[in-house]
Structures are given as structure tokens and as C-alpha cells.
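From the methods appendix. Each design record in this collection lists the discretized structure first, followed by the designed amino acid sequence. Records were kept in a plain field format so they could be parsed without special tools. The example shown here is representative of the layout used throughout.

RECORD:
C-ALPHA CELLS (227 positions):
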């Protein structure tokens, strides 16, 4: 059974989220502050974390950083009243896999949670392992290497990478990428989420010469050419 941790200090909201996500597939673990969340995380990471930013004993962004340092593959969805564009960008740059502002629709929250719990993008081909120049991407095992160095990617970054490398040489429009990566039924996804995810993926893979921006359209993984 997959485990979801909810770190939210508003006890009524926390209880409501527990009820909304109650499912035979999920075990829900409520936390109300950073201290209790850290204690539970010491016993093992859950499969997904819903995390408020404004907590009574500190910022949820600090906990987000700790989680991603320990294991980037654990998806974290920020739930917060901080709704400016800069707040969203800051949360995503800290490693959040999604960002939901309060108030929010419980139906959309459930859809986004289930989207994050899907481990892989449906394959566009029968090959789950791709070797491109010095890279090796194993989407089945979620193992990614630059030369022989392992690179940890969040699930959102894995989805983006798979779409780009399985369509090498083809420009993927921003609209298509947003639709394919955030397949959660949301009415609106801030396009900054895509820009930040692309930047993180480029930096982690040192792939600026491969992941190119096609201005006004989207992004492409370029086919290597003789230099």
C-alpha cells in the first residue's frame, strides 16, 4: 500500500485532506509541524508528501530541501496560500513536483496526487533503456547516468526527459509538454512550472547542448551533430 504524508498545521484542513484522499490504495499519515514530519521521515520516506509552506515551527521549504537531498524521487506537492508568481517559482526551484494554492478543489487535488503516483510516462516505444552519447536512461528502473555518474531526477523531471529523448530532433511544444507532464485534470498549470523543470533537468544532466529552447514554440532534444 502506498503511503501519503500530509504536513499541514490547520487540523481541520488536514483532517479534510485525509478524508478526501482516503482510498484502499493509500495509507494517509497526518503531521502538523516540521518536528513530527522529520521524526516520521527518519523511519522511511513515504511515496508522496503534501507539504504546507507556512508551518508553526518553520518553513516547509526547509523540509522540502531536506527531502530532496535525501531522495529526489519522492514527489512533493506544496499546498500553500502563497500564490504570487515568485512564490510558485521559488517552490519549484526548491524541488517541488507540483504547487497548489489555497483554496483548491479537492477533485483536482486528488487528480494531481494520482498523477504524481504514476511511476512512469506511458512508453512511446518498447525500449525503456536509452543510451545517447554519454548518457544512459533506464526508465523502468528509474536509473539515470551521465557517463558513469548517477543522476537523481524527480518524477516530473523523468517525465520531461522521456518525452524529449523519445522524440529526439522533434520540437515538443510547451502546450504538449504541459498536457503530457501534468496529466491531472487541472484547469490551469502555471507555465513557469515547465520552465523551471527544464532548467533543473538541464543543470542536473549538464545537457545545455542537448536540451534546446525553440523560442516561441517549446523545447527539443537535439540530435548530436559533428562539431
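DESIGN:
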Amino acid at each position: 500500500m502506498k503511503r501519503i504524508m500530509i504536513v499541514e498545521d490547520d487540523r481541520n484542513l488536514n483532517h479534510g485532506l485525509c478524508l478526501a484522499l482516503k482510498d484502499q490504495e493509500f495509507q494517509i499519515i497526518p503531521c502538523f509541524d516540521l518536528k513530527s514530519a522529520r521524526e516520521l521521515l527518519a523511519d522511511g520516506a513515504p511515496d508522496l508528501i503534501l507539504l504546507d509552506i507556512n508551518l508553526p515551527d518553520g518553513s516547509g521549504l526547509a523540509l522540502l530541501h531536506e527531502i530532496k537531498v535525501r531522495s529526489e524521487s519522492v514527489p512533493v506537492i506544496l499546498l500553500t496560500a502563497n500564490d504570487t508568481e515568485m512564490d510558485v517559482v521559488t517552490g519549484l526551484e526548491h524541488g517541488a513536483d507540483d504547487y497548489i494554492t489555497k483554496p483548491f478543489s479537492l477533485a483536482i487535488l486528488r487528480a494531481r496526487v494520482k498523477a504524481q503516483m504514476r511511476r512512469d510516462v506511458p512508453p512511446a516505444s518498447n525500449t525503456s533503456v536509452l543510451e545517447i552519447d554519454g548518457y544512459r536512461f533506464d526508465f523502468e528502473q528509474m536509473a539515470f547516468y551521465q557517463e558513469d555518474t548517477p543522476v537523481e531526477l524527480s518524477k516530473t523531471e523523468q517525465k520531461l526527459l522521456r518525452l524529449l529523448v523519445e522524440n529526439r530532433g522533434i520540437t515538443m511544444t510547451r502546450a504538449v509538454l504541459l498536457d503530457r507532464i501534468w496529466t491531472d485534470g487541472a484547469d490551469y498549470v502555471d507555465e513557469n512550472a515547465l520552465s523551471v523543470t527544464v532548467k533543473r533537468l538541464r543543470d542536473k544532466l549538464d545537457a545545455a547542448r542537448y536540451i534546446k529552447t525553440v523560442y516561441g514554440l517549446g523545447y527539443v532534444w537535439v540530435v548530436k551533430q559533428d562539431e
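APPENDIX NOTE: The first strand starts at residue 2 and ends at 7.
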